[in-house]
Design a protein that fits this description.
The chain is of the alpha/beta class and 600 residues long. It folds into three domains: 35-348, TIM Barrel (Alpha-Beta Barrel), CATH 3.20.20.80; 356-446, Golgi alpha-mannosidase II (Immunoglobulin-like); 458-596, Sandwich (Jelly Rolls). It has 13 helices and 30 strands. It has an eight-stranded parallel beta sheet with strand order 7-6-5-4-1-10-9-8. Strands 19, 21, 24, 26, 27 and 29 form a six-stranded mixed beta sheet that branches. The structure holds 4-nitrophenyl 6-deoxy-alpha-L-galactopyranoside. The site of 4-nitrophenyl 6-deoxy-alpha-L-galactopyranoside (JFZ) has 16 residues, from loops.
């Protein structure tokens, strides 16, 4: 269990380190033992669900990333803020918002076909517009638009009818249309704001409407908290709980409260995380619809992402951004359906599972049920021999998930070797099952990382490093456009020959390998010398410039092939990386890649 705790610890650090301009207050960091100690009595469905659909839909969907002939990139639901649109002009957008193509049955059916188990839709985002019938304001879809209907009523009913848990996203602090709401500084003076008044007059009454008029909710997905103390947040939460004790609250309610933990946008932990949690990703680059955002994740990417999140014990909530007419983008529809086809055949290895007990391998990841490990094979070993290191438990059987065909298994030392049948190597994820008795040693970051010539490449990621001196393993957050956060964990702070990072690897196939360092390196760090030690063999290299680290720009990693190294025997080796001389930070090291010279 120690390693699992360590994983959680690394993530706690990771979350603590996030410093993002878009949010009022990073609250995920405060989701702590105070709340994680006692589980919500209704958390069971959430833990088993694994796959959720997030929907960002509002007036920004109508603007579609365009304002006054200018195109905006990144998070489309932030267009009012990005373009600093005055409240008066923004309110006029509502008069043109008429999503006549919206069909609740179709959305719910798509979710069903995709294998989705819960849905969370934006009832009110930071823009302040209510997508539901609200008596608290006129700035809502029934009063302010030609549409005049409440789409949330229909969607709640349609989802529930299909057995999908239904929930609302509600921006409880940021409201750019209210003088006392959080974060509109272009129309209102932040110093004159009375947040409590905003909570009392809008947020709380609206949350009461949502929790009263739409049947039993699975989740209220709060976001970007602010303007309340711990005690005020407690009172806020307790007050709302009375309306629907069974409804879960996301950790972004703030102040360490909430029933499950949300990871920052598009943030995927590298090791198992205990307790209920969710990773959120959007299907393209934006949460809200942008008409020129066509960068959609393929079914293969979604299927692997889902397995990857599940292998660390979490849920994936994937976002789609319907347009101003109420249509879900064609590619979202198409790729979600493809994902659903995979889930229809392989759902047993995802739903109701928890994190896998086999650490990430070059072939893929694992998920667990009692007495079972599901092997999600993304990359087939060239010779079909799939190796599981450190498997001490007694194997009862091994078989293909589809068709339940027996797979021969051998034990070699503490390794398990499965003789995989031939299968379609372009498939996203082919699942095998191992049934066993006894215990599997818990996930351990110090387990040597397997390296073999059965795969085009083998990655040794920074998280597996042991650091010395002032070297640190640090999660870095950056973005490409705006609010489209990316995350990379790197070894940082290596400035001196005493600052080192070392990695243990397990060479499964002796032979020659190229050693590739993947790192980011700004101008000032370039042309410095470093050493990579493979046991006692020294390889020198000189750093190449890639890019600066700036949270609002891409962090560019270069793949620098520094050496060819022969590994004469199978077994454990140490890789150690350090600067040759004292100087600036050598680089931010993301991964050491070992590429077999003669792939089998
Ligand atoms: C928030 C919103 O601002 C954004 O528009 C979108 O709705 C997204 C799902 O959530 O953005 C955040 C909030 C919190 C973090 C990052 C982005 N965080 O804690 O890492």
């Amino acid at each position: 269990m120690k390693a699992i705790l360590k994983g959680g610890f690394i993530l706690a650090l990771l979350v603590l380190d996030l410093n993002r301009s878009m949010q009022a207050q990073t609250m995920d960091e405060m989701w702590d033992s105070r709340s994680s100690g006692k589980e919500h009595p209704n958390i069971g469905w959430f833990k088993d669900a694994k796959f959720g659909l997030f929907i960002h839909w509002g007036l920004y969907s109508k603007l579609a990333g365009e304002w006054k002939d200018k195109n905006y990139y990144g998070s489309g639901e932030w267009i009012m803020n990005q373009a600093k649109i005055p409240v008066k002009e923004y309110r006029e957008v509502a008069a043109t918002f008429n999503p006549v193509a919206f069909n609740a049955e179709d959305w719910a059916q798509l979710a069903k076909d995709a294998g989705i188990r819960y849905m969370v839709v934006t009832a009110k985002h930071h823009e302040g517009f209510s997508m539901f019938d609200s008596k608290v304001t006129d700035f809502d879809i029934v009063d302010a638009t030609p549409y005049k209907k409440d789409p949330m009523k229909a969607l709640a009913a349609a989802s529930r009818k299909k057995g999908i848990q239904f929930g609302f996203y509600y921006s409880q602090f940021q409201d750019w249309n209210e003088p006392n709401g959080g974060k509109n500084s272009w129309d209102f003076d932040e110093k004159k704001k009375n947040y409590q008044l905003y909570y009392d007059q809008k947020a709380i009454p609206q949350l009461k409407e949502l929790m009263t008029n739409y049947g039993p909710l699975g989740i209220i997905w709060f976001d970007t908290p602010g303007g309340m103390t711990r005690q005020q947040t407690e009172e806020f939460v307790n007050g709302l709980r009375r309306l629907q004790p069974n409804c879960l609250f996301s950790s972004r309610v703030g102040q360490g409260l909430g029933d499950y933990r949300d990871f920052g946008d598009s943030e995927l932990p590298t090791t198992p995380i205990m307790g209920p949690w969710e990773s959120i990703y959007t299907h393209n680059d934006s949460w809200g619809y942008i008409k020129h955002d066509m960068n959609f994740k393929s079914p293969l990417e979604i299927i692997r992402l889902l397995a990857n999140v599940a292998s660390k014990g979490g849920n994936l909530m994937l976002n789609v951004g319907p347009d101003g007419n109420g249509r879900i983008p064609e590619y979202s529809e198409k790729y979600l359906k493809e994902t659903g086809k995979w889930l229809a055949r392989n759902g047993e290895s995802i739903y109701g599972t928890t994190y896998g007990l086999i650490p990430q391998q070059p072939w893929g990841v694992s998920t667990s049920k009692p007495g079972k490990q599901y092997l999600h094979v993304f990359n087939r070993p060239h010779n079909g021999k799939l190796i599981i290191p450190g498997f001490e438990a007694a194997v009862r059987s091994a078989y293909t998930l589809q068709g339940r065909k027996v797979v021969p298994v051998k034990k070699k030392g503490n390794q398990l070797i499965l003789d995989l049948p031939a299968f379609d190597q372009t498939a996203a994820n082919t699942v095998f099952v191992i049934e066993y008795t006894g215990k599997i040693a818990p996930y351990d970051l110090t387990t040597p990382v397997p390296v073999s010539n059965q795969f085009a490449m083998n990655s040794v990621d920074a998280v597996y490093g042991k650091v010395q001196g002032s070297a640190e393993i640090k999660p870095l957050t950056y973005s490409h456009y705006y609010g489209d956060w990316k995350h990379a964990t790197c070894v940082t702070g290596m400035k001196d020959p005493t600052d080192a990072a070392s990695f243990t690897i397990n060479i499964q196939d002796p032979g020659d390998y190229h050693i590739i360092l993947e790192y980011a390196c700004p101008q000032e760090s370039a042309k410095q010398e470093g050493v990579l030690l493979v046991n006692d063999t020294r390889f020198l290299f000189r750093t190449l410039r890639s890019s600066e680290f700036d949270k609002s720009a891409p962090l560019m990693f270069i793949k620098h092939t520094i050496a060819t190294s022969s590994f004469a025997k199978a077994g454990t080796y140490t890789l150690e990386c350090r600067p040759l001389n004292k100087g600036k930070e050598l680089f931010k090291l993301k991964t050491i890649v070992l590429e077999p010279v003669n792939a089998n």
